Amino acid sequence: MTYFLGLTLLAYLLGSIPFGLVVSRLLGGPDPRVLGSGNLGTANLYRVLGLKAAILTFLGDTLKGTLPVLLAGFWLAPLGAWREGAVAVVGGAAVLGHVFPVYLKFKGGKGVATAFGVVAALAPWAAVNLALVYVLALAQTRIFSLSALICAWLLPLAMGLFSDSKAYLLLAGFLSGLVLVCHRENLERLFKGEEPRI
Predict the structure, then answer these.
(1) Cα dist from 71 to 10, 59, 66, whole Å
(2) Rg, the chain, Cα only
């Protein structure tokens, strides 16, 4: 239980690291929170600082979802039948840290890359298929948010197809709902035809 609580806290704190802000400062750029969409995610870093910043931000945000889940899978093995549920909680904590970061007064990103990192650790083939869907959707629509929303809608289906864990499926449903809620303003702009394209 001590390992579980410690890993959950660690996942939240790692998830709270604002890699978009870190990358921007390392590259000598402006604060992304005052430019573009004001978000610290990959899409806004691409708009504000370009492809290099976007890639670095995506990698950082993804890894802070993947690493805690991999650690939990290893350290929580003694939990037996409870292991998958505990690992799912750790994964959820990482994404919640990204969305509600303690370091930024609980005002964070939209959870897409970090959720992807969690899924990649739990069900790699689900992550691969979602990544392909994202790339195809982005190529067709040239809208970051719409591509992310499509993947969020498909996340529970992908997890169900490539994992037989009920705990992971419940986590996928939670992450899907969280990402959709975080994109509510994007949805409004999409319906109005005002969402920016690449």
Answers:
(1) 10, 18, 9
(2) 16
Q: What is the dihedral of CA 53, 56, 59, 64, to 10 degrees?
A: -100
* For helices 42-49 and 144-162, angle between their N-to-C axes, nearest 10 degrees: 150
Cα angle at 14 between 8 and 125, to 5 degrees? Answer: 80
Closest CA to 47 of 156, 153, 155, 145: 145
Contact 96, 156 (CB under 8 A): no
> Would you say residue 1 has pLDDT above 90?
no
The phi and psi torsions of 171 (rounded to 5 degrees) equal -60, -40
**How many other CB atoms sit within 10 Å of the CB of residue 76?**
21
Look at the pTM and tell me if it is higher than 0.90. yes
Residue type, 157: L
Q: Which residue, chain included where needed, has tokens 């239980």?
A: 1
Distance CA 53, CA 40 (A): 11
With cut-offs at 50, 70 and 90, classify the pLDDT of residue 178.
very high
DSSP character string of 68-137: HHHHHHHHTGGGGGGHHHHHHHHHHHHHHHHHS-GGGTT----SHHHHHHHHHHH-HHHHHHHHHHHHHH
How far CA 33 is from CA of 51, 104, 168, in Å, comes to 18, 11, 32
- Report how many helices (DSSP H) and strands (DSSP E) the chain contains, helices first: 10, 0
